[in-house]
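protien #1 (seq + structre)
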Amino acid sequence: MKLDEAMKQLKEKGYKTTAKRKDMLTFFVKADGYRTAKDLIQYMEPTYKGISFDTVYRNLHLFDEIGLLETTVLNGEKQFQITCTHNHHHHFICKECGKTKEIAVCPMDEVMNELGNYSIEGHKFEIYGLCPMCKSA
């Protein structure tokens, strides 16, 4: 998702499009993979001295709730990345650096055969490990 797209969605959902929210979303648009709330605070601190964890977490929750961010849990900590809006895919996520790689294969065809008369409303498929750079380090 691009920044202008995210800001437009925020406004369409009835939320204010403040400079602070724009800067938060900019961080995730530029990030290569999943990032923590702590990473966001470190990014925001030079511009917004004393930015509170409350403000950051409240906005992260909002962005997740309205679909601007995707979340996962790595090493016991919730992490975020800008939502992918292109073709259906899944992710390999590096447990060390948080970088992601798209995976085009989807296991849902097989799962749907197993759950023939169930109503599936969504799914998420993630693979965790080390990217080539972290593996060689």
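ok now protien #2
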Amino acid sequence: MAELLGDKRRFAVEVGDWDGSALRRVDLWVADQWVTCDDNMVFVKQFRFYVARTAAGIRSAEDQTPPFAGLSPAAIHRRLQAAARDGEEEYERFGFFHRWGWGPTTDNVTSRLWRDAIRLVITLEFWREGHLLIHPEHAGTIFVAELPAAEFVGILEEMVTILGDGEGAPVT
């Protein structure tokens, strides 16, 4: 039985059943967008490790305000993308799924994340041609979600518990 954590309009996770191997279905949503539409099967041991690492990293980060003050989240996302393309590695710290190693399930998007005090901002952009052919309205669109950092970390920590130990047993 699948379990939904969070709010799809901001950030949500649905952890599904085991497939009988080391894989498990995990669906992710950011800003009401189904992120894992291309691949929603995760290798649990690896995925769980990276989700736990993300939660710990966000929990310990006091402030990760991006350097482009006064801009909208979408404009900040575009600036961070341009800086990354130009090889300015200091901006990679604002990466989300790729930076934290969430794997193939999130390879279809470019995402950024920053924390400003208690507020967390996640930006997302679909880039795969196949997705954009099905959803041409997504071309060039930056989806933005904002939520309290504590809520985000709580969702990740609960997901780690539900995912289990990679052998089908819950982590207690």
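The chain has one domain: 3-163.
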